Amino acid sequence: YGKNTIKFLRLHREGKKHFVKEVQVCTHLRLTSAQEYLEGNNSLVIPTDTIKNIVLVLAKKNGIPSLEQFAIDICNHFMTTFCQVMYVKTYVQEVPWQRLHENGVPHIHSFICVPDGIRFCEAEQCRNGPLIVFAGIKDLKLMKATQSGFEGFYKNEHTTLPERHDRILCGELFCKWSYGECKDFDFDCTWNKIRECILEAFSGPPDCGEYSPSYQKTVNCIQMLVLSKVSQVQVIEVVLNNTFYNVLDMKNLGLTNEKEVLIPVEAPYGSCACTLGRKKFFEA
């Protein structure tokens, strides 16, 4: 049981310069006994209102140095404070505020909400067990206008999809990864590096791009690049929900349409998902 959707804005000041972190937190606990379920005995139950207040107090006292560290702080607090807590899991999601720039100059106290993907993390721990930290990005919408196709696929009497060697590749990406030992590295720097890997693998070199023969291959390229460049990542899950665009037939308007006007296909849409990890992780 626990408390969902604890929303707050943490404001930090350094002189005239302001820093903001707006987050949404979900914290769930498992107790050593199920007596509240089986017997109606609530003596060990930490009220969800108390859970909410603890999260807010930790934000006030510790700040939010990174989403992952804040989730770790919450887990550590419940494990060290309440002997009846057997398991704790915390999810933290950030509102994508970015500092506003005017003529290239960063503003000291103004921000803009930029929907270029939502950062999140999870931390979970069992008593006498290791602390496990996940991080990720969701609702990241990506598009490449060319350098994508889909050919040579299996066909039977139900196949109507034509082969394409030049199409738009567009999708909404969900990516979640797990870390190894969470010590002595910068969570913010690592998250930004992984995000750069995702964008690089999706798009290819800026001057020419890179051909994608399928959404599945693009998903694999993202995972392989992250695992090759970020040693802290042990397992990475990627889900790419596809958005398709059909070329509009404009013959009845007396026009030819050479892939200049396209209509998005809202539903149904395709989805590709894969979880990839280092061999030592799966052997363990």
From TrEMBL:
<keyword id="KW-0659">Purine metabolism</keyword>
<feature type="binding site">
    <location>
        <position position="48"/>
    </location>
    <ligand>
        <name>urate</name>
    </ligand>
</feature>
<feature type="binding site">
    <location>
        <position position="48"/>
    </location>
    <ligand>
        <name>O2</name>
    </ligand>
</feature>
<feature type="binding site">
    <location>
        <position position="216"/>
    </location>
    <ligand>
        <name>5-hydroxyisourate</name>
    </ligand>
</feature>
<comment type="similarity">
    <text>Belongs to the uricase family.</text>
</comment>
<feature type="binding site">
    <location>
        <position position="150"/>
    </location>
    <ligand>
        <name>5-hydroxyisourate</name>
    </ligand>
</feature>
<feature type="binding site">
    <location>
        <position position="49"/>
    </location>
    <ligand>
        <name>5-hydroxyisourate</name>
    </ligand>
</feature>
<feature type="binding site">
    <location>
        <position position="49"/>
    </location>
    <ligand>
        <name>urate</name>
    </ligand>
</feature>
<feature type="binding site">
    <location>
        <position position="167"/>
    </location>
    <ligand>
        <name>5-hydroxyisourate</name>
    </ligand>
</feature>
<dbReference type="InterPro" id="IPR002042">
    <property type="entry name" value="Uricase"/>
</dbReference>
<feature type="binding site">
    <location>
        <position position="242"/>
    </location>
    <ligand>
        <name>5-hydroxyisourate</name>
    </ligand>
</feature>
<dbReference type="GO" id="GO:0005777">
    <property type="term" value="C:peroxisome"/>
</dbReference>
<feature type="binding site">
    <location>
        <position position="48"/>
    </location>
    <ligand>
        <name>5-hydroxyisourate</name>
    </ligand>
</feature>
<feature type="binding site">
    <location>
        <position position="242"/>
    </location>
    <ligand>
        <name>O2</name>
    </ligand>
</feature>
<dbReference type="Pfam" id="PF01014">
    <property type="entry name" value="Uricase"/>
</dbReference>
<feature type="binding site">
    <location>
        <position position="216"/>
    </location>
    <ligand>
        <name>urate</name>
    </ligand>
</feature>
<comment type="pathway">
    <text>Purine metabolism; urate degradation; (S)-allantoin from urate: step 1/3.</text>
</comment>
<protein>
    <recommendedName>
        <fullName>Uricase</fullName>
        <ecNumber>1.7.3.3</ecNumber>
    </recommendedName>
</protein>
<keyword id="KW-0560">Oxidoreductase</keyword>
<dbReference type="GO" id="GO:0004846">
    <property type="term" value="F:urate oxidase activity"/>
</dbReference>
<comment type="function">
    <text>Catalyzes the oxidation of uric acid to 5-hydroxyisourate, which is further processed to form (S)-allantoin.</text>
</comment>
<keyword id="KW-0576">Peroxisome</keyword>
<feature type="binding site">
    <location>
        <position position="167"/>
    </location>
    <ligand>
        <name>urate</name>
    </ligand>
</feature>
<feature type="binding site">
    <location>
        <position position="242"/>
    </location>
    <ligand>
        <name>urate</name>
    </ligand>
</feature>
<dbReference type="GO" id="GO:0019628">
    <property type="term" value="P:urate catabolic process"/>
</dbReference>
<dbReference type="GO" id="GO:0006145">
    <property type="term" value="P:purine nucleobase catabolic process"/>
</dbReference>
<feature type="binding site">
    <location>
        <position position="150"/>
    </location>
    <ligand>
        <name>urate</name>
    </ligand>
</feature>
